[in-house]
Fold:
Amino acid sequence: MTLAPIRGAPPGAPVPDFPIEETQAKPAQPTAAPASGDQPPIFPMRRRQTPIEIGGSGITFTFRVIPELPAIARASMIVDIVADAVGSSSSHTVGFLRMSAATARTFLTDLRNGRSSIVATGDEDGTVQIEYEITEAGPVLLVRKPGRRDALHRCVVERRFDLNTTAGELLADLGA
Structure:
């Protein structure tokens, strides 16, 4: 086996005394697993820091993590709530809240762990608060004005949304 000089070494540098082996690419092996119609659909991978939308009952919640910019701004999470107008293609903003990273982590950890009832408030800014409950109808998100008991909107989260996975992805975006 021949020895090769170190790549980028100056001319006349000593040749190393260990062998250099050529890497060989292995051909791809075909899989023997048959394609099955019973397998769940594979969703494309989500890119980090991409907003996540969940909804139901004509309401959409968009969760967006704002990463930390050292010496400029701390990480935070913004939740925008939009309602679809009945019988119309238009929609209107119900409200929003902006949580510090610490508050968002607490909310998302409780959500991921299946706790009920959880209240999320915008400790940095916001016009509404969100309350999460598990009911007989399924997971429900209530939108309220801060300090009020009457709900502006009640959203039964559609079954296609996995709140545990969503919370985990948002926690990862926050660096938790």
